[in-house]
Amino acid sequence: MKNAIIPVTILLLSLSATHALFPVGDRAVVIRIDDVQDYGQPSPYSEPEKKLLQYHIDEQIPALISIIPTRFGKDPQLVDQIKKGLELKIFTAAIHGWHHEDFSNLSEDAQSEKMRYGKSRLEKILGMEVLAFVPPYDKFNSETVTALRRSGLTLISSSTYEGDIPREEDGIVFIPRTVTTAEVASQSDTWTPLQFESVTRQIEDSWASYGVAVIVMHPRQLISDNGEDRWGTYIRLLEWIQANQGRLVQAEPPHPKKPPVQLAPLLVSVGLFTGMVSTLLIAFNLSSKRRIGKRQPE
Question: Residue 285 contacts by C-beta under 8 Å, 6 or more apart in sequence?
Answer without folding.
Answer: none
